[in-house]
Design brief:
The complex is a heterodimer of chains A (327) and B (349). Helix content of chain A is 34%, strand content 24%. Chain A is α/β, with parallel strands linked by helices and 327 residues long. Chain A contains twelve helices and twelve strands. In chain A, strands 6-7-8-3-9-10-12-11 form an eight-stranded mixed β-sheet, with helices on both faces. Chain A has a four-stranded antiparallel β-sheet with strand order 2-1-4-5. Chain B is of the alpha/beta class and 349 residues long. Chain B is 33% helix and 23% strand. The chains are: A alpha/beta (327), B alpha/beta (349). At the A-B interface, helix 8, helix 9, helix 10 and helix 11 of A face helix 8, helix 9, helix 10 and helix 11 of B.
Chain lengths: 327, 349
Amino acid sequence: MAKLLEVTDLHTYFFTEAGVVKAVDGISVSVEDGKTICLVGESGSGKSVTAQSVLRIVPRPGRIVGGTIRFDGEDLLAKSEAEMRKMRGNKMAVVFQDPTTSLNPVYTVRKQLADILLLHKGLSKDQANKTALGLLEKVGISDPEKRLNAYPHELSGGMKQRIAIARALSCEPKLLFADEPTTNLDVTIQAQVLELLKQLQKEYGMTMIMITHDMGIVADMTERVTVLYAGKVMEEADTTTLFTSPKHPYTEALLKAVPSVAETRALEVIPGNIPNLIEPPLGCVFHPRCKYAKDVCMKEQPEWEKVSEGHYAACHRWRELSLQGRS
Amino acid sequence: MERTQFARTELSMLTDSGPLLRVRSLIKHFDVVERGIIGRKKIGEVHAVDNVSFDIARGETLGLVGESGCGKTTTGKVLLFLETPTAGSVNFHGMDVFEVFGKRGRAPDARKLRRGMQMVFQNPYTSLDPRMTVFDILSEPFVIHRNIPKEEWKERVYELLRMVNLEEYHAERYPHEFSGGQRQRIAIARAIAVDPEFIVCDEPVSSLDVSIRAQILNLLSDLQQKKHFSYLYISHDLSSVRQISHRVAVMYLGEIVELAETNSLYDNPLHPYTQALISAVPVPDVKHRTTRVILPGEVPSPMNPPNGCRFHPRCPYATDICKRDPPAFEDRLVKGHFVACHHADKFVR
């Protein structure tokens, strides 16, 4: 199937006073039309900056310094800012982590939804209002007519996130980024929102990129996973393969370190801390915390190797190690 | 070390053979006031904690779970008298906590009690004073409690650092030089500096990265095994609660709706709210498939909690009796498995 988005060897650096932060340092990721993939990683892994780079909304002092981004057959890095504006919200949209800050507090829900429709779709005010109402119904907001005139502070967190989703979907984008969309929500509300995203993704035939640190959400939501760490890609596979037979020690460690609501088991600790991205470790970035690290891991960066069809890993020792998944 | 040990036996002499901590009918209501031009008018009450009772044994971890606004953090704070209770009693080592702390000018027992009960807060970025070195942070309890002579402070601080897997040289540094996980270790070291017996841990891993969470959870368990601490582990994260708790209490709108031994609660939840809560958590396992119970609506306002069973407006099993009568909180179906639901017998497996 055709790739809707193809990011190759992306480098996005932040030029801070303390030094150059290599937030994204050679990340490649691609997604086929109509699929859902997941970028999983901890803070500083580069998952959000990757999304920002694709949307070309990297905040200063950040800059895309290398790589290519192809979306729907077009080269995004060659586009002018005006052209990007036409894409954002129209062909690609994003749902951010915190709906309290991503919605504008001084405008009503109606205005925030209608503005996008007026701008991108060229609808009349009446049409835009009607469409906005339809969107609120679609994302499961009760009493939508009343909510249209509400301001964000009058709504609960779960409802705000539904509005943010409605806004993202308003122009029926081809690609939706969901950047930790449920991290600030309670579990029962999280379940509602995840279910909604799944259902909408099917209905619209959208391509979705979920960004999360929660292995539970990965297992639940997506078909393919890319594991990021310290601005680099560690492993990529379909979800089942990644969980049952990981080939990168970081993936294995992550799977063993997360508790599960379904069972009690001994947690295996990943020692140490997330590295400083101004001076990332030489060789493999994970080597200081890796229990399988050898001399070569400290000196040379591992190649991105094909393990099997659709399964890739960046580890010097993937062939000799027999890593355990979560069975 | 010997001195702190002495303090502990001193407290233990007061104990009867019962649980270390006994909480009975704890109530905390917050007044909601409207500010006018002249004076304030009370317009309502938030029922943050309503009639909560539980015991914690020595060396036991009781998990307290619930969604935001259910009153779990307030419960933890009221126990330590960081919030003034509205009613109820807390008994620690046979001492009435509220009476000791409630006295004006503070009874001499208050300091002793404070040494027995400590707290680890959610956010180590705000709970540590940025202008103090780790040494100052960890020795401040000694200044207050005067339990250790000054010449032993250094040794004791080093010992504390080792206990939480930090190095001696960390003592000279400031909080901003540490990562989140390391800061939380410092916060834990500070809590155990006075050799307490009971520690309230309020979401101690929520602000940490996934790879760091396991470190802190394991540290808390290790310390418990060595020192027989009792924990009240407050969290909204049901997975980490399952990992660390011996028993778990589930709160909804200020009330405990279910309390049972961990496996019993997770494997056979008897309250529809607990069932929904557990089923809502995504499991990090591709083979795990459950039918998710999606609760309709959201948690009602704690200012006017619903009549009868507080969960009835969202409960898929609610009948007339649920709208009318609040259910009793009892363990009549399974011994030691307390639940407040009129229909709990349907769910016993």
